[in-house]
Q: What sequence folds into this?
């Protein structure tokens, strides 16, 4: 895998995504676009397109148990 520089990533990611993915930034709790997302699908890394997890394995974070009502 080749190492990509700052210029490469700044052309591939918007400002917010760059901060999160390249500068270890974070978003405010419960504020993310997918916080209350319950549609079936696959969640992927915006930078490299690697699969992070599938919707059927999404957890309710405040309980620590897998969500069963989705």
A:
């Amino acid at each position: 895998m080749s190492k990509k520089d700052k210029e490469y990533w700044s052309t591939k990611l918007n400002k917010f995504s760059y901060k999160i993915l390249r500068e270890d930034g974070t978003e405010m709790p419960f504020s993310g676009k997918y916080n209350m997302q319950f549609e079936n699908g696959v969640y992927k890394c915006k930078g490299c397109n690697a699969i992070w997890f599938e919707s059927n394995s999404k957890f309710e974070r405040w309980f620590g148990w897998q969500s069963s009502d989705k």
Summary: The first strand starts at residue 42 and ends at 44. The chain is about 20% helix and 15% strand. The beta strands are 42-44, 51-54, 59-60, 65-66.
